[in-house]
Amino acid sequence: MLGVVLVSGSAVGAYAAWDLANTIKPGVKLGNEEQLANVPDIGAIDGGVNVLLIGNDSREGQGEGFGDPDEETAVLNDVTMLFHIAQDHSHASVISFPRDMVVDVPECVDPEDPGGDPLWELYDVKINSVLSWGGMPCVARTVEELTGTSIQFAGSVQFLGVAALSEAIGGVEVCVAEPIEDEHTDLYLPAGMNELKGLPALQFLRTRHGVGDGSDLGRISNQQVFLSALARKVQNDGTLSDPSKLYGIAKAALQNMELSEGLLDPTTMISIALALKDVDLSKIQFIQYPTVGNGSGGQAPTESAEVVNLALQQDKPVVFDAEAQQDVSFGSTVTPAPPAEGEAPVEEAPVEEEAPAEAGAADPAVPTPTEEALPSDVYGQTAAEERCSAGRTLEDQ
To answer: Domain span at residue 301?
Structure first.
């Protein structure tokens, strides 16, 4: 709490510390808490970070508009993302795992009986079923086994929590190339730039039928459009340098998310956020974990998944195959949205070439990581790319 007061100064002050302290709810024991002994009270977190982010589709406590919780009783991690910040804070990546990807699940602690016999291993099950099997720690262990990395933090959020978080951020402006019409999520957006927060932001992140090819892969691509726009917003509008804004986001997370124990300290959240303050947007990468249909309604990781795993394990930034990102059936598009009526078309700004570095300018103590070229079946984008959601109308569906 002292850390919040110190970083906030007169903008938030003692009230913020008291308010956040009263917001905190019990956390989930992830199992890697011993790695967090040296988390600083304030300033950017030391070293690298791996955070598991889960979108929990449980209808419990969500009110009307999301189906009947008595009928739709599944508790699925329909969104599973691994957020990685490099050891030297030079780059970051968000890996999205398709919900229908088949995985092996290691032995997990039984959330119903933590001191009893563990849950047995599972093989070739869809990753979105792991949350209901063993809870958030089991999802974390499964992703650790899959990628060969260690996860220190995790958080799970339901529908209304996503809406609340988008409100705390202040909304995100996204590009829509063609109109989005989705009667399943009640989302109807015109082509052009759309500012989204609250319920519309949630609907945009949930829509599947209204974008790409109507698949979950299309939804992942759509989420990357939103998240890249979010990254640009929080860097460009000074969110990561504004203690009062960071406080508001931390409070919204504490109120609306189920968090691992290591994230219950708001100063830890702020320390993680500050690690991204100076990362170049071209070095923040959103990666769709590469899969292929397995013939049984699921997705299986391809050989290229190991390249993604090694980049994570070796802490390397990645480079997408630019040609492979064009005209993917489920992907976003570089086609700019048409201007609103009466507006002149927006001309694309010329790309400025980077000036060559001066000899001797590099710090020999901090070697630049070698970039990992991703195979052509690995899709995604950087936060610097302003891609557009590939909308679909009801007629197209």
So the answer is: 2-342+373-389
Return all residues near 336 (Cβ < 8 A) that are at least 6 apart: 175, 177, 346, 348, 388
Determine the Cα–Cα distance for residues 268 and 250; give it in Å rounded to an integer: 10
| Cβ(37)–Cβ(70) below 8 Å | no
The verdict on residue 112 lying in a domain is yes
User: Are residues 254 and 24 in contact, defined by beta-carbon separation less than 8 angstroms?
Assistant: yes
3-class SS of residue 38: coil
Specify the CATH number for the domain of residue 141. Answer: 3.40.630.190
Number of separate domains in the chain: 1
- HSE of 254 in the Cβ direction (CA atoms, 13 Å)? 26
When mean pLDDT is compared across 4-13, 71-80, 126-135, the lowest value belongs to 4-13
For residue 75, what is the enclosing H or E element?
Answer: none
Half-sphere exposure of 211 (CA within 13 A, CB side): 33
Whole-angstrom distance, CA of residue 350 vs CA of residue 363: 30
Q: Residue 245: which pLDDT band, with cuts at 50, 70 and 90?
A: confident
The pLDDT tens digits for 171-188 are 999 999 999 999 999 999
Indicate whether 228 belongs to any domain.
yes
Residue 366 lies in a domain: no
pLDDT digits (tens, 9 = 90+) for 36-57: 444 444 478 888 999 999 999 9
CB 172 within 8 Å of CB 195: yes
* Cα distance between residue 125 and residue 366, in whole Å: 42
- Looking at the domain assignment, is residue 351 inside a domain? no
Q: Which residue blocks in 170-326 are alpha helix, DSSP H?
A: 199-206, 216-236, 243-256, 266-274, 305-313
- Asked whether the beta carbons of 60 and 161 are under 8 A apart, the reply is no
**pLDDT, tens digit (0-9, with 9 covering 90-100), for 139-153:** 999 999 999 999 999
Collapsing DSSP to helix, strand or coil, 251 comes out as: helix
Give 273's pLDDT tier (boundaries 50, 70, 90): confident
